[in-house]
Amino acid sequence: MSFTLATWNINSVRLREPIVLKLLQEEAPDVLCLQECKSPVEKIPTEGFAELGYTHMVARGQKGYNGVAILSRLPIEDVGDKDFASLGHARHIAGRLENGVTIHNFYVPAGGDVPDREKNEKFGQKLDYLTEMRDWFHADKPQKSILVGDLNIAPREDDVWSHKQLLKVVSHTPVEVDQLAETQGAGGWVDITRQDIPEGPLYSWWSYRARDWDAADKGRRLDHVWATPDISNSGHSSRILRDARGWEKPSDHAPVFATFDL
User: Is the whole model's pTM more than 0.90, yes or no?
Assistant: First the structure.
C-alpha cells in the first residue's frame, strides 16, 4: 500500500477552507494533517472535504485557538490524544490507518517572543511540552508510526534563512534545538524530509510581516514529517509546496508532503 501524506498549519480551517479545498483538488494527498485549526470539531467545514472523497476525520478542537485534525480518504481510527504539559490545549491527535500505521499530528507551542522561561511563561511551556513528548517516547517506544506537524522549531542551520541572526530568536535557539533533538532521539524518529533532501536551504514558513515574502525568502522549516526506524526506509518523494504560501488569503505555512510504501 502506498499513500501520500501532507501536513499543514492552516491558521484557521474555516477562514481558509477555500485553499484547503484547492490543495485537496490539485494535490490529492491521501491524508492531510492540519494544525492551528482554530475551530471546535463540530464547526470544521467537513462537507466540502467529503465531496472530494475525504470522508474520514479525527480531530481535537477549541474555539479560536490551537486545534488539530487529520482528514483522510482512507479509513482511519481515532486512537486518542495527549495533553502534554497539562496545558488543556488541543495540540495532539493520533489516528491509525487500516495498515496499522499510527499517525501523530502535533502542534507544539510557539513559545512567545523571549527565549527565557523566567521572563516568558510561554517559552517554558514549550520546553515542558517537548520534555513530556520525549519522556512519553522513552516510556512507550513508538513503532510503525509517523509524526507530523508544526513543531515550531527549525533545527538545522540550513532550516533557517540566517543561522547567525536567528540564534537568539525563538524557534532556532540552541536550547530548543537541543530539546527537539532529545525528543526525536527518544522515539528514534527519522526526519523523512531531510532523509530525502539532505542538503540545502529548506523552509516551510514565511512571516506575514514581510512585504514580499517570496523575494525576501526569510523562511524557517518549522513543519516536519518523521517516521519510526521500522518504516522510515519506505518514505520518499518529500517536498514542500512553496507555491501555497502565495495562494489567496494564505497561511504563513506551506504544506509538507511525503509518500510511504507500506
Answer: yes
